[in-house]
Amino acid sequence: MSLLPGLSLSAPSTATPQPDAATHAPPRTEELSPRSELRFEVAFTKTYRVRLVRGTAELFGSELAPGTTYTFSGIKGAIFTWHGCTLELQGEVESEYVGSETEAMVEWLNVHGMLETARDDATMGRDGNGGPRVLVVGPDDSGKTSLLKCLTAWSLKMARTPTIVNTDPREGLLSIPGSLSAVTMGSMLDVEDGWGSSPVSGPTGVPVKTPLVYHFPFASPEDSPRMFKPLITRAALAVTSRLEEDDEAKQSGIIVDTPGSINQPKGGYDLLMHIISEFSINVVLTLGSERLYNDLLRKFGNPQSADDVVHVFRIAKSGGAVARDEGLMRQARQQQIKNYFFGDSRTSLNPHGQWWDFGDLTIYRAVDPTASHAQSHLMPGMDYDDSPSGQGSASILEKVLPSQEMVNAILSVKFCSGNSSADNVCDSCVMGFVYVAEVDEGRKKVRFLAPHPSRWGDRALVWGNWPEGVGDLVA
Ligand SMILES: Nc1ncnc2c1ncn2[C@@H]1O[C@H](COP(=O)(O)OP(=O)(O)OP(=O)(O)O)[C@@H](O)[C@H]1O
C-alpha cells in the first residue's frame, strides 16, 4: 500500500483486483473463426488475461498486439476477429462465450467507410465545412459507446484525428463522471483502458490525450437543462474554433456520444436537437430504436438548404451489447474516481493533501432544481440573485461556505477566478477535480486531496450531487 504524501494515509485497497485461484490456473486456448467474437464479463474484483497467439483481433476496434498479455477487470467486452485467431485466456469471468452473430460489425465497418469518404471530400476541398459531424443516439446500453469506439479506432488507423465529444455525465470520457468532455484524438486508444489516459489526474507513462472538460454535476441532462444547454453551446464553440486552427482535425470531423435518457420522445427531443444544432451535426446514427429513427427521419425530412441536410441512418445493434445494472454502473463510477486520484493497476498516482483557509476559497453549489435547498449554506449577506444579469446562473449555482456536508465530496476547480459571475463559473471549463477529505469548522480550514501538489490559487470551485457520494477515499 502506498502512503499519500501530506495525508499520511494509505491508498484504498478496494480498487485493486485480488488475485484469484483461476488466475494461477494454466492458461486455456480459444480458437475464433473469422468474423466471430469472444464475449466476456469480468467482475471488478477479478482479473482476466488475454494474449493473442495467432492471427489478428480487436477490442472495440483497437487491435491487440500479438504476444502481449492484456489484463481486464470490471468490464463487459468482446474480442472480435475478421480473419480468425487463437487467444490464450486466463482468469475468472462472470460469463464467456463465442458469438457468431456479428453482422453488426460489417455494417459498422461500412459506416466507417462512408465517413472516410466524407473525410476524403473534406481533404480534397469538396466539402468546405470539414469532415462528417456525427451524432450517435439510441436507448441506454444499445451499444452507442462501443460503436463510437470502433469508428474512432478505425479512423485512427487511417491516420485521422477525429474529435470525440461525450455528452453523457454518467460516464466520463478521459475524466470522471459528472463531466462533459471533448478531445481530439491524436494517439491510439488503449485496449485495456478504453479511451486511454489524460493528464488531468497526473503524470502517466503512456501518451496522454488532453480533453476539454466541463462540469455537469447531474446524472442526466434532463435534471438541469438550463445548465446543460449553455455548456453544450460552450463546448461546441470551443471545439469549432479548435478545428478552425487544425486542418487535419477539421477534415477528420466530430463524433458525439449521447446518454440514452435524452433519446426519448418526451419533450420533443429538445436536448438532442440542441446538440445537433450547436455541433452542426450532419450524420445521425440511430441504434436500437425504430421509433427514434423514424422520428428523426421525419424531423430532418425537409431541409431548407444544403447546409441543413442531416442524414439519419439506422444502424444494427451489436448482438453482444448487454444491459448494465445500476450496481455495476455505480461501481464503475467509483472505480473511475479512485483511478483519477490513485491511478490504476498500471500507473500508481500519489495525490496530495492540501489545507486551505475558508477565507481563501470560493465554493459554489450546483442547485438541484428538484430539491429545495437549505438557505443556511448561503454566504452571509448573499442571496440567490447574485449574478450581474440578476437571473441566469444565480439559481443554478449558489455560493456556499464549507460545511461537514461537503466531506467526501468531489469539487471541480474551474479555470475562472473566484470573483467571476455565477454565469462565468457555470460555463468555465475544468482544471481538475479535488476531493474534500476534512472540514475543520473550528479552525476554519478544509483539507483537500488533489492530483497535483501545486495550489490552484484564486479559482472558483463547484460542488454537485453527482457523481453520488464516493465514500471515504482516504480511510
Ligand atoms: N459485442 C459485445 N460483446 C460483449 N459486450 C458488449 C458488446 N458490445 C457492447 N458490449 C458491452 O455492453 C455494454 C453496453 O454497451 P455500450 O456502453 O456501448 O452502450 P451505450 O448505448 O453506450 O450505453 P449507455 O447509453 O448506457 O452509455 C457495455 O458494457 C459494453 O462494453
Q: How is this structure best described in words?
A:
It is a single chain. By secondary structure, the chain is of the alpha+beta class. It is built from 9 helices and 25 strands. The protein folds into 3 domains: 21-100, Jelly Rolls (Sandwich); 103-315, P-loop containing nucleotide triphosphate hydrolases (Rossmann fold); 351-463, Pre-mRNA cleavage complex subunit Clp1, C-terminal domain (Elongation Factor Tu (Ef-tu), domain 3, Beta Barrel). It is 23% helix and 26% strand. Strand 6 (58-59) and strand 7 form a beta hairpin. Adenosine-5'-triphosphate binds next to strand 4, strand 9 and helix 3. Keywords: ATP-binding, mRNA processing, Nucleotide-binding, Nucleus. Residues 31-121 form the Clp1 N-terminal domain. Residues 138-342 form the Clp1 P-loop domain.
CATH architecture of the largest domain: 3-Layer(aba) Sandwich
- Strand fraction equals 25-35%
Radius of gyration (CA) equals 23 Å
CATH topology of the largest domain: Rossmann fold
Report the total helices.
9
Gap between N and C termini, in Å? Answer: 12 Å
- What ligands can be seen in this structure? adenosine-5'-triphosphate
Query: What is the average of the pLDDT values?
Result: 85
Largest sheet: 7 strands, mixed
CATH class designation of the largest domain = Alpha Beta
**What number of domains?**
3
Subunit structure: Component of a pre-mRNA cleavage factor complex. Interacts directly with PCF11.
Region (Disordered): 1-34
Keywords: ATP-binding, mRNA processing, Nucleotide-binding, Nucleus
Subcellular location: Nucleus
Question: Can you lay out the helices and strands and say which pair or pack?
Answer:
Elements: E1 3-4, E2 9-10, H1 21-24, E3 28-32, E4 36-42, E5 48-55, E6 58-59, E7 62-63, E8 69-72, E9 75-81, E10 85-91, E11 95-99, H2 103-123, E12 133-137, H3 144-157, E13 163-166, E14 179-184, E15 212-215, H4 225-244, H5 247-252, E16 254-257, H6 270-278, E17 283-287, H7 290-299, E18 311-315, H8 326-342, E19 352-357, E20 362-366, E21 397-400, E22 410-414, H9 422-427, E23 430-440, E24 445-450, E25 460-463
Parallel strand pairs: 12-16, 12-17, 13-16, 17-18, 20-25
Antiparallel strand pairs: 1-2, 3-10, 4-9, 4-11, 5-8, 5-10, 6-7, 6-9, 13-14, 14-15, 19-24, 20-21, 22-23, 22-25, 23-24
Helix pairs in contact: 2-3, 4-6
Residues 37, 39, 76-78, 138, 140-146, 168, 171, 259-260, 318, 320-322, 324 line the site of adenosine-5'-triphosphate.
